[in-house]
Write a structure and sequence with these properties.
alpha+beta, 4-stranded antiparallel beta sheet, elongated
Amino acid sequence: MTVRKLAPGVSWVPKRIIDPIGPGLAEHRERRKAASIMPLYEHVFMCRHDISQAQVENHVANFRKIIEEGQGKVGKVEYWGLKNLAYKIKKNRKAHYTLMNIDAPHEAVAEMERQMRLSDDILRFLTLRVEAHDEDPSPMMRADRDDRRGRRGGRDRARPSRERDETTVPDEGTGTE
């Protein structure tokens, strides 16, 4: 390595030695762009309860178009149905849930999220980056879910009756000790 003296106490080091983004990281980024590896995302969004399922599908088609214009693609799309919310969101007690598997660059996903923020029909959304997409139906779509127990959550079984034994309960009104 050659170090040149420019002035007393000041030296110059070639730029390739001091790489602001780290050694080898720039080459890794260029190889990744050349290989066109795009990140994978799982995206779930909730629509207001008072729109129809056809309108929800129309939103999915619009978001699919945004992703495809950004050189991405949408894999599996699952409509989970109209479900109750745990708490009110923007004065809504129910929402239409939809899952989308997305293979797209970050810019396309960011544009889709921007459009969702502008829409009055979208209550909430969540985008997660994943290592691989699961092609099986999601747990929300599986018909053989074990946790479905009925309306009362398994509490509809008859409870054992509690009979009070009069001999074990002290008599409080007599005043004898």
